[in-house]
Amino acid sequence: MVGSIHERIREDLLAKERRLWTALTSADPGPEIKKMCNEEANLLFPKREVLHLYSKPSISEALKPPFHHFEEYELQEVRVIVIDLMAGTVTYKINARRGQDVFRGTGSTTWSQGSDGEWRIVVHQETLL
């Protein structure tokens, strides 16, 4: 039984991670990403201050247009680590492109499940290689 529950958690977290990256590559990611965040969430992007709901600038302010993180991306070597039935972490390598610029890095998102059953971001981190 535990195996099937963990598989479902892995599938849910992979779907949430894809939704996060779809938002990151949209023209206006702030509103969608804010909805995906736990109220204590921290977002760590390269060459930026740590963002959270109450930071200056806030997540919504920092990610508003013309923020356009990447035009396309590919996640490789994706691992989902089930911490417990209410938390998990997704780690991966990132290959991404913006215009002619190519980026390679690593990423990680830790998710927690709220009392409403929704998975929300606790910490998202990207590191350029």
From TrEMBL:
Domain of life where this protein originates: Eukaryota
Coiled coil: none
Gene3D superfamilies attached to this UniProt entry: 3.10.450.50
Residue ranges annotated for the DUF4440 domain, each copy included: 13-121
Pfam families membership: DUF4440
Protein name as annotated: DUF4440 domain-containing protein
Source organism of this protein record: Aspergillus ibericus CBS 121593
Phylogenetic classification of the source organism: Eukaryota, Fungi, Dikarya, Ascomycota, Pezizomycotina
